[in-house]
Amino acid sequence: MADHREIARRLYEAFSEGDRDFFERHLADDLVFSSPPDPRLDRAGFFEVCWPGAGRGQKIDIQRLIESGDEVVVTYELTRPDGSGGWNTEVLTFDGDKLVKMEVYFGWDR
After folding, report:
1. Which class is domain 4-109?
2. Where are the beta strands (DSSP E) in the chain?
3. Which residues are CB-neighbours of 89 under 8 A, at least 6 positions away?
């Protein structure tokens, strides 16, 4: 059985580090990614729209990591190299060790 909380934690570390290989292994082929400006992106759309922000020196400090069934709710504080940042909450849905759905809910900037 997959440890969804650990995979979720590692996904945020991998994004900060720009470790695309980890994402490639854990994103389902039929991934659906949604955020307010980018609803219902597929896997290719995720890498096209979101991945360019990976590995840019940001720090992601996870504040909440709650598992419920196949979902993990993650709230984190983001700090960019220039000191700006904010808080977001995301709902990650898994099928085994593959992420099949990501829902991003923006918090506030600081």
Report:
1. alpha beta
2. 27-35, 38-41, 59-68, 71-79, 85-95, 98-109
3. 64, 73, 74, 75, 76, 105, 107
Q: How far is CA 11 from CA 53, 83, 84, 92, 110, in A?
A: 14, 22, 22, 10, 24
Both tokens assigned to 89: 């909450």
Gap between the Cα atoms of 44 and 32, Å rounded = 10
Q: What pLDDT score does 2 carry?
A: 83
Percent of the chain at pLDDT > 70 equals: 100
Does the pLDDT of residue 1 top 80, yes or no?
A: no
Asked whether the predicted pLDDT for residue 40 surpasses 80, the reply is: yes
Question: How far does the chain reach from its first CA to its final CA, in angstroms?
Answer: 38
> pLDDT band at 16, cuts 50/70/90?
very high
Residue 52: burial class (beta carbons within 10 Å; 0-12, 13-18, 19+): exposed
Two tokens at 46? 């995720």
